[in-house]
Amino acid sequence: MDQLKNSNTINSEVPVVNGKMLYYAFLAGGNRILQHQAEINRINIFPVNDKDTGTNLASTVRWVMDNIKPHKSYKTTVNSIAEEALRGARGNSGVIFAQFLHGLNIETINQPKLTLTEFAESVNKSVPYIYEAIANPVEGTMLTVIREWSEFLYQRKHAIHKFTKVLVESKEVLERSLAETTQKLKVLNKTGFVDAGAKGFVLFLQGIIHFLQHRNIRMLVENYEPVSLIHSEELDHEHITFRYCTEAIIKNLNTSKNNLQKVLSSNGDSVVVAGSEKMCRIHVHTENPAELFYQLKEYGTISYQKVDDMVRQQETITKRKWNIALVSDSTCDLSQELIDSYQVNLVPLNLNFGENHYLDKVTIQPKQFYDLLETSEHFPKTAQVNEQTFTNLYSHLASHYDAIIAIHLTSQFSGTFESSKKAGQRISNEFGKPVYVIDSKNLSGALGLLVLRAAGLIEEEKEASDIVQIIQNEIDRAKIFVSVKNLKYMIRGGRVSKPKGFMAKALGLNPVISMDENGKSLLFGKTFSQRASLNKIFKHIKKISANKKVWNYIILHAHNPELAAKVENEMRDITGKDPVSTVNISPVIGMNAGIGSVAISILYNA
């Protein structure tokens, strides 16, 4: 910002570009994308007609803009931009754009200032990086526009003192190349649209060119305001081949990027592998992220993951059943059929085995989790969902629903509730729509039952505020009882101290865990076998069910379907009804209860 002290503008024609000029140019280009993201979304047809290319590009550039600082060295600045773009890239278009910046950084000589010749050469050499990153490059997209623009710059690279003039002249090449995408890409022929990703790149450069023509840094900085991500209301129905848009950062890759592309391609489509072996960003559309990431752990350290459910996104935009959105987290244990039927948005908690990062119930399912629990040298650790994740989700939902209700696991176990609450307040203020965030003071099946109850009330078209009041009144009537088979997992996870655990194991004790009224774990009882602990639970349920009517119940198990079936029969005799679900318990819960554990969750009527 020190340049602001001297002048509002920079000399309109200089033979070189330095780091600060690049920094402000990126801000100008990024601003242009942020301002036109709705337009880019509207024309998004390829590779998937999900109307989010503008949002993804906006999210990518905003991440970079929020995380870089001006520096006088061009090489330092382009390196910072490239690294943050790889970290913050979102969607197919965002990852391709990040790969272009990665190539630009690699091919930039280590100098504080660049001439037009040096800049043009670095741009030209960066193009192969993009083509190599994409498993099936398609012409008539962002790729073509970048290539044809770089070829023009390379032809004009010896115009030594005409840096800005050459870039201004390149506008004609950009606009012609963009217009030709309509004919080059068959899927665009019927619509008459240009390619959305290519449009985003052209807008980015138009913003930079406008800045270089006027060089008014003060206006650029003073007029910059964070722009919310915009989610389109327009979406044509189409069959989604692969449900999950999946991205990750893999560090210290121990295989070739070409081989990684083959692995990803065998699991889906829209494959992009950007970055280097040191830090590699992947993008793929796949049907089973958990199976994919179980393979990927062999190829390096998985340090970041993001998975978007494109079916749920499409439902939000074009197939909403009701006008109230329902949100919970991955500790909510319900069958997938119920989650899909009621269009529940589940936000996954983070789960780490050593340095490898996973998303609960998304990139790691019980099948993979319990295998790693037995074979990994690391005991898993959990991390709350961050505020930004909720902000992104709530901004998307608030673009389409009249209200949002979120119900989360007990705040005594995780900061997820607080992250959701802060994001909800921000989005509520921004969109003028209510976002209600509820601490269930429970988890697993008990949380699932409260979510299911809220879903039923939404289906009955109750007012959002009335639903929230009903759920808050019913929290105390949701119960969970967990029969632990083996204490070793609670000892490994630190839930039980080693001395106490040793004594309990020596005595053959099997604890029964429940929750108190404040959402803290409660030792409900101790027995000398799992059968005895279950009998204790059945006896207690019979006692309290004598005076209360069971609304619904769920049977949960940690990889123990045989015992779960027996428990289901017993509960059917006690309650006279079938469970609403019998499910494998969430991995972030099962890590402490341990393999073989069985739980019963009940919600009583008032």
From TrEMBL:
<feature type="domain" description="DhaL">
    <location>
        <begin position="20"/>
        <end position="210"/>
    </location>
</feature>
<dbReference type="GO" id="GO:0008289">
    <property type="term" value="F:lipid binding"/>
</dbReference>
<dbReference type="GO" id="GO:0006071">
    <property type="term" value="P:glycerol metabolic process"/>
</dbReference>
<dbReference type="InterPro" id="IPR048394">
    <property type="entry name" value="FakA-like_M"/>
</dbReference>
<keyword id="KW-0446">Lipid-binding</keyword>
<dbReference type="Pfam" id="PF02645">
    <property type="entry name" value="DegV"/>
</dbReference>
<dbReference type="InterPro" id="IPR004007">
    <property type="entry name" value="DhaL_dom"/>
</dbReference>
<dbReference type="InterPro" id="IPR050270">
    <property type="entry name" value="DegV_domain_contain"/>
</dbReference>
<dbReference type="Pfam" id="PF02734">
    <property type="entry name" value="Dak2"/>
</dbReference>
<dbReference type="InterPro" id="IPR033470">
    <property type="entry name" value="FakA-like_C"/>
</dbReference>
<dbReference type="Pfam" id="PF21645">
    <property type="entry name" value="FakA-like_M"/>
</dbReference>
<dbReference type="InterPro" id="IPR043168">
    <property type="entry name" value="DegV_C"/>
</dbReference>
<dbReference type="InterPro" id="IPR036117">
    <property type="entry name" value="DhaL_dom_sf"/>
</dbReference>
<dbReference type="InterPro" id="IPR003797">
    <property type="entry name" value="DegV"/>
</dbReference>
<protein>
    <submittedName>
        <fullName>DegV family EDD domain-containing protein</fullName>
    </submittedName>
</protein>
<dbReference type="GO" id="GO:0004371">
    <property type="term" value="F:glycerone kinase activity"/>
</dbReference>
